[in-house]
Write the structure tokens for this entry.
Amino acid sequence: MRLLLALSFASLGLVACGNANNASMDAQAVASRIQKVGSVQLQSAGGGELRSGEQVYQAQCGACHSSGALGAPKLGDNAAWGARIGKGYDALLVSALKGKGNMAAQGGGAFSDLEIGRAVVYMANKSGGNLAEPKK
Ligand code: HEC
């Protein structure tokens, strides 16, 4: 009887140990997952990863503005862009940020305002404009 009790305590101990191990593994797994998320946030918060106007254009805006789909003014079509550019950078930026006609806000993408601004300047300057590169 004594032996049996001792044995069952021993196995209880093993079970407890096993649980403790699992718990610390879980904690490690959670910690490494949190770390990954944290490092991604650091990169984007650094601000160095913002895309250029050309990159944004190719990723998002070209879908309509390279072909003129849905009535979009085409890249390089100075006549189509002339009157628009004449409204000034701020007006163009507002249209691109908030959407206009068949164009959704941000052209349907998810970018920072500065990236959208860069894309606006990229397109305008490829289409007869001479806008300054936005700083913010
Ligand atoms: C789904 C198609 C589509 C996409 C994608 C798209 N556009 Fe447009 N865009 C349009 C159309 C259509 C117009 C003309 C809107 C109008 O004047 O009614 C337009 C017009 C514009 C204008 C001129 C606005 C004005 O006030 O005259 C700018 C600037 C512009 N787009 C920027 C962008 C930028 C920057 C992107 C990418 C981030 C983008 N567009 C992506 C369809 C698109």
